[in-house]
Amino acid sequence: MPSSPTKSALGHLRILDLTRVLAGPWCAQNFADLGADVIKIERPGTGDDTRAWGPPYLRDTDGNDTSEAAYYLAANRGKRSVTVDIATSEGQAIIRELVAHSDVVLENYKVGQLQKYGLDYAALKLIKPDLVYCSITGFGQTGPYAQRAGYDFIVQGMGGFMSITGERDALPGGGPQKAGIAITDLMTGMYATVAVLAALSHRDRTGEGQHIDMALLDVQVAMMANMGTNYLASDKAPERWGNAHPNIVPYQTFATADGHIIIAVGNDRQFRNFVVAGGCAELADDARFATNPMRVQHRDVLIPLLAVMVSGKSKQAWIDRLEQAGVPCGPINNLQEVFENPQVIARGLRVDLPHPSGATTKLIGSPMRMSETPPDYATAPPLLGQHTDTVLKSLLGYSESQIAALRGRDIL
Fold first, then answer.
1. Which of 219, 288, 343, 394 is the Cys-Cys partner for 188 at CB 3.0 to 4.6 Å?
2. CATH classification of 251-255+260-331, choosing from 3.30.1540.10, 3.40.50.1000, 1.25.40.10, 3.40.50.720?
3. CA torsion, points 68, 17, 220, 262, in degrees to nearest 10?
4. Active site residue 185
5. What is the pLDDT of residues 273-305, one digit of tens each?
6. Preceding amide of 55 cis, omega within 30
7. Which of 185, 213, 218, 376 is flagged as catalytic?
8. Residue 187 and residue 235: Cα distance in Å, rounded?
9. Distance separating alpha carbons of residues 184 and 267, to the nearest angstrom
10. In the CATH hierarchy, which fold is given to the domain comprising 14-223+341-408?
11. What is the pTM of this model?
């Protein structure tokens, strides 16, 4: 169920969201969850590209598909949708009026594209000097790649992520592998959220706005974390190890009788407990496997033996045995199992919101847990243009006839 906080962390802010697809909308949704008024500007007639990125789509009360793709629903709750054609002078004028009433502008257009519309940072800060303006692109506003379009998949490859993700080349199925989600887009959205909050804090202290330049490639390189510094410290590029660990054995996935399990043996005592639980205590007494350095050295001999041992019992049987034996382990759940997990249920990670179509929107809740100002899932992701009239009337003072005239010229 939606939360009902008595206080809102960011209820004093208004975000003008000119982004679409994932990185920008993910950032904007964080602000919406924390109470900000997020006005999502969309192209009349079609809106955010992801509205049509299905199936699957939200189903209405009769079980029929609506026009709202699940992809779109994932990143747009709590926002107000306003349709404006920013390629027209009238549409650009509306955006400028909205900027005067906003704290933040988020945009993910190609470098220089908004400048020709007079909607770039240099133009808009003349309207609102303390404006925080965040641009999200593939490669940033500067550098030789600035004009290139950026795609998460490509950046995962360029930024090194796929060089360490995937099975080892020497094994069946070996080779580079992308993440199962658009991880660079999502992390860019998260970094952008932090940067905007920092810029707002600076604004509140000094009255000074600023331009934030977020790039997917920058984020991907930054999130290489210890793998990146391992290279910088050694001048040796890390390799792919699949689900195994280069320095600890056994520390990987194994196939059970009915699925896969993660077994993370961190010391020799845990290894003994593991093989005893599997009825193969003799493996702990084998000199080739008695210590972790020896197990790493004889990995290719040991792992097939352990694979046979593990395959003889079910996933749950192994989890029960190993938890009792003090051996770190865990299941590899599909998403049905994830949302049936008692811990996930207890933490409220599924959120059901009423949709304007009459359907129920099933969404994933925010992981932010705040004692005084928790996330507020106020509304489902909006229909295209659902709030156009309301925003133009209440915020900008437009009349019914003005709105009708703009709509008649396809501005809205």
1. 219
2. 3.30.1540.10
3. -40
4. yes
5. 999 999 999 999 999 999 999 999 999 999 999
6. yes
7. 185
8. 26
9. 34
10. Rossmann fold (3.40.50)
11. 0.92
